[in-house]
Structure formats: structure tokens, C-alpha cells
Specification:
Layout (H helix, E strand, L loop, with lengths): L11 E9 L18 E7 L6 E3 L5 H4 L12 H18 L7 E4 L7 H6 L4 E4 L3 H9 L4 E2 L5 H9 L4 E7 L8 H11 E12 L1 H6 L12 E2 L2 H10 L2 E9 L5 E8 L8 H13 L4 H5 L1 H21 L4 E4 L3 H10 L9 E2 L17 E2 L4 H4 L3 E4 L5 H7 L9 E4 L5 E2 L1
Parallel strand pairs: 4-5, 4-7, 5-6, 7-8, 12-13, 12-15, 13-14, 15-16
Antiparallel strand pairs: 1-2, 2-3, 3-9, 8-11, 10-11, 16-17
Helix pairs in contact: 5-6, 11-12
Length: 407
């Protein structure tokens, strides 16, 4: 098995979470009577380009199908994040009616709708039919394809190159990251700006965010590895910002290598921080498995303790990261009878692997759990604000990552 970027033989394991179903493969009641597909969930680190990556068994088409259930607009904080970004890019880049904004993996239109409202032409690229349908209902034109070099070149030949090219939480999701990057190069207009947002590997390691590992995430990205990948495609990282989204992300600003805009000092600062933390040293990777196991063991022990004490525990957020930790811990409905989620696309279905039923948040008042385990811990503050009423019956909130905490 070779590195998906530099093709070096992979010899160094980082994390082994056993076998699990795809984290967004939610089940219907009828599905419960059928066999469920499981794949190995293992990560390796390349000792040359330091790209952390999955050991691949699942194909992208199996993971991002017509029934894909992740809708970005479900989170109010993410919508606000998108709105602020769009407003900033509109002003700083001077975008107008003669500009073109392209978003790769545009999901349900959560971001591009802001450019539509401002009268700026845009195009979404989104292979999942369920989310593309939602975007089109907002007046956003969508290409229902997986993005790569061939599509990037085709758009360029059609005269559709982007003044602003956006990829939010997609760079980690592509199996052929080199082909994808060459596509970005092809479709970016000369003088155009590319922004990519992705969870930062440094935060994953520091805060034991192993539950962000799932089959849909083919790569786990540091600025060092991203810079190498984009450079090989003819692009240049010229600025970077640290974000709080998804437990700690980076937003990089990139351009063509020949672009005259200077590089920000922030790029070197983040690279130094990564090196200082040991991201280009095997030691930090070899000790991660034991740290992840402690988080898993603490959660399982906590749920067993609550069951013995007769306390009712429910979960909030049928998130992919929650599926990772529940399946690794072997949690089933006897320990966690319900999970509540605001996305109508998930309600009435069951979590993959654990088969915990997904209910509407309105049903919390019927169940009245003593403890509500927040699986998408990255939006814990938002979840607690929206469900503060559980404190009226003495309910409390729980998060498991990076350490178990009752709030």
C-alpha cells in the first residue's frame, strides 16, 4: 500500500478502529433485516510527505450516494460561519455580476445561497442527489458530478473558470487527492483565489479527536502535507487562518504559483507550530492508539455505570463522529436507547452499526433523559443552548472527547 500523494510505501500505522460501516450509511427499519457492510477503519502515516490516510476499502460512490444524509444547513452556527465568509470574500475580492464563484462539494447550498442573494454568479459541484436537490431549490445551479482534473479542465474549456474557488471540508474526502488538486488548478482563473477549509491534524492529535476518523475522510491534513500536495499541482498557499470549526480547522488561501501576491507570515508560523508539536516525527503517531482507547474505555464505562444506576441516557446528534466512537466502543441500544437529531433526513432511521433509533428533538420531552450525550462535541455550545430545557427536569449534558465531562 502506497501513499496516495507521494506513492511512498506506507509502513507506519497511526490508528486501528477495527471494522465499521460507513458513518453516514443510516438505516431504515427494513435495512435492519438485511446484512450490513463493514470495512476496516485504519489510518497510516507517510514518513515522507506526512500525509495521514485511510487504508482504503470503500469506494467514494458507496460513501456519497443518492441518499447521503448530511445536510450542512442543519447547524445554525455553520450557517453563520458561511454567511460571514461569503460577506468577507465579496468585499475583499470585489466580486460582482461579472465574477464566478464555484464551490466544490456545495452540499445543500448552505454557502452559495449567500452569493446568489448578492447577485454574484455561482456554480455548485455536488455528486449527492439529495443535497443537490436542496441547493437547486434555492436557485443554485449544480453539476451532479465528482470533481477531479477532467471536470476542472472541461469547465475551463467552457470558459467557466472561478474568480473564487471554494472547498469546505472536501479536501479530506477525496480518494485521489492529486487528481482533485490538478482539477482545482485547471478551473481557477488566473489571478483567482482558492480557499480550502479542513480539520487540522494538529488538533486531532492534541485533543484525541479520533472520532473524526471515518471512511468518508480519506486524508487527515496538516498544512505541511497540504502545501506539498498543492505545490505539486501548480498552486501556492499564500495565507492560512486557524478556525474553531469542527474542533479546530485551517482555512488556506491559495493561488497559481505564478501569482504575484506575497505569502503571509502566518504560513510559516503554522508550519513551525506543526513541526514543534512533532507532526513530522513518528513518535507522536505511534502513541496515539493508546490515547484513543482511553477515551473509548471511559465512555463505555460511564454508560455501563449509568445503566446500573438506573439513569436514562440519550444522545444528541446523529453525527458521523458519533458513529465512529459508538461503533468502536460497541455501544448498542441497551446502553443508549435513543439519539435525537434536528435533520429530517435522519429522523426515523437508525445509526449504522449500533442501530440506535434517531428521533426528532421534540421527543426529548417525552423521554426526559437524565443525561444527554452530545456526539458532535464541536457544536456542544449550540446543542446546549437549543436544549437547555432538559435542566428543568434535572437533565445534564455529557461530552466524551477529549475527556469525559458532565456539564
Amino acid at each position: 500500500m502506497n501513499c496516495r500523494h507521494c506513492h511512498t510505501a506506507l509502513q507506519h500505522p497511526f490508528l486501528d478502529l477495527g471494522h465499521a460501516p460507513p458513518s453516514n450509511a443510516y438505516l431504515t427499519a427494513a435495512d435492519l433485516a438485511r446484512p450490513e457492510r463493514y470495512f476496516p477503519l485504519r489510518l497510516w502515516v507517510c514518513d515522507q510527505c506526512w500525509l495521514v490516510q485511510t487504508e482504503d476499502y470503500a469506494e467514494a460512490g458507496e460513501l456519497f450516494d443518492a441518499e447521503y444524509a448530511y445536510f450542512s444547513s442543519t447547524s445554525s452556527s455553520w450557517l453563520e460561519h458561511a454567511r460571514r465568509y461569503a460577506e468577507r470574500m465579496h468585499e475583499s475580492l470585489g466580486l460582482g455580476a461579472d465574477s464566478l464563484v464555484i464551490e466544490v462539494a456545495s452540499n445543500d447550498g448552505y454557502l452559495l445561497k449567500n452569493f446568489v442573494a448578492a447577485g454574484i454568479p455561482c456554480l455548485g459541484v455536488e455528486p449527492t442527489a439529495s443535497t443537490a436537490d436542496a441547493a437547486e431549490r434555492l436557485g443554485i445551479p449544480v453539476l451532479r458530478e465528482f470533481f477531479g482534473e477532467a471536470l476542472g479542465r472541461r469547465l475551463a474549456e467552457d470558459g467557466r473558470q472561478a474568480d473564487l474557488l471554494i472547498g469546505n471540508n472536501v479536501f479530506a474526502h477525496v480518494p485521489d487527492i492529486n487528481d482533485f488538486s490538478r482539477g482545482l488548478k485547471a478551473v481557477l482563473k488566473p489571478g483567482g483565489t482558492l480557499t480550502l477549509e479542513f480539520p487540522h491534524l494538529l488538533r486531532l492529535v492534541e485533543l484525541v479527536q479520533f472520532d473524526t476518523v471515518y471512511h468518508e475522510h480519506f486524508s487527515y491534513l496538516s498544512l505541511y502535507s497540504v502545501e506539498r500536495i498543492l505545490t505539486a499541482a501548480g498552486l501556492r498557499v499564500r495565507d492560512v487562518e486557524a478556525l474553531t470549526t469542527h474542533g479546530g480547522s485551517l482555512r488556506i488561501f491559495a493561488c497559481h504559483q505564478e501569482d504575484e501576491r506575497p505569502c503571509s507570515a502566518a504560513v510559516d508560523a503554522v508550519l513551525r507550530a506543526e513541526a514543534s508539536a512533532g507532526l513530522r516525527d513518528l513518535a507522536i503517531y505511534s502513541g496515539f492508539q493508546a490515547r484513543a482507547d482511553r477515551v473509548k474505555d471511559d465512555l463505555l464505562g460511564f454508560l455501563l455505570e449509568q445503566k446500573r444506576a438506573g439513569r436514562r441516557v440519550a444522545a444528541y446528534g446523529a453525527a458521523a463522529k458519533g458513529n465512529t466512537i459508538l461503533n468502536y466502543a460497541g455501544v448498542k441500544p441497551d446502553l443508549l436507547p435513543w439519539v435525537f437529531d434536528a435533520a429530517p433526513s435522519k429522523q426515523g432511521k437508525y445509526l449504522p452499526g449500533s442501530h440506535v433509533p434517531i428521533r426528532s428533538p421534540e421527543e426529548l420531552d417525552d423521554v426526559r433523559p437524565d443525561l444527554l450525550l452530545i456526539l458532535p462535541w464541536n457544536i456542544a455550545d449550540e446543542v446546549m443552548r437549543q436544549n437547555e430545557r432538559i435542566r428543568q427536569w434535572g437533565g445534564r449534558f455529557v461530552t466524551a472527547v477529549p475527556t469525559l465531562e458532565v456539564k
